[in-house]
Amino acid sequence: MPVADTSIQAYEELGHKEPIQIEKILAVMQHGKNYTNRELERMTGITISSVTARVNKLYKKGRVVLNCRRQCMITSKNVKAWSRWW
């Protein structure tokens, strides 16, 4: 299969995964808590690049909000933490 065909196939498969990944991220976010992208990665099993893309999309749609900057429990770095907008 030519490279262009595999790229198109990968893009089409992503389109089916995105809504599932979004719902999975929202499902693990509990009311009154905040989460870093790495924490969401660990909780959902979704790759960090996909978590970051989905959280950015949710933020732009107003479904999650930037809660604070805090130390991530996974990386120990000071990063953004997100909360679900109920």
Topology of this protein?
Blueprint: H1 3-28, H2 37-44, H3 48-60, E1 64-71, E2 78-84
Antiparallel strand pairs: 1-2
Relevant terms:
86 residues, two-stranded antiparallel ribbon, Arc Repressor Mutant, subunit A
Structure notes:
- The chain has 86 residues and is an alpha+beta fold.
- The protein has one domain: Arc Repressor Mutant, subunit A.
- The protein is built from three helices and two strands.
- The protein has helices at residues 3-28, 37-44, 48-60; strands at residues 64-71, 78-84.
- The chain has a two-stranded antiparallel ribbon.
Cα radius of gyration in angstroms: 15 Å
CATH class: Mainly Alpha
- The helix content is 40-55%
Average pLDDT taken over every residue: 91
| Low-confidence regions | none
Question: Any idea how many domains?
Answer: 1
Sketch the major β-sheet: 2 strands, antiparallel
Write the H/E string, N to C.
HHHEE
CATH superfamily: Winged helix-like DNA-binding domain superfamily/Winged helix DNA-binding domain
**Side-by-side strand order of the widest sheet:** 1-2
Secondary structure tally, helices: 3
Structural class based on helices, strands and sheet pairing: alpha+beta
Short précis:
The protein has helices spanning 3-28, 37-44, 48-60; strands at 64-71, 78-84.
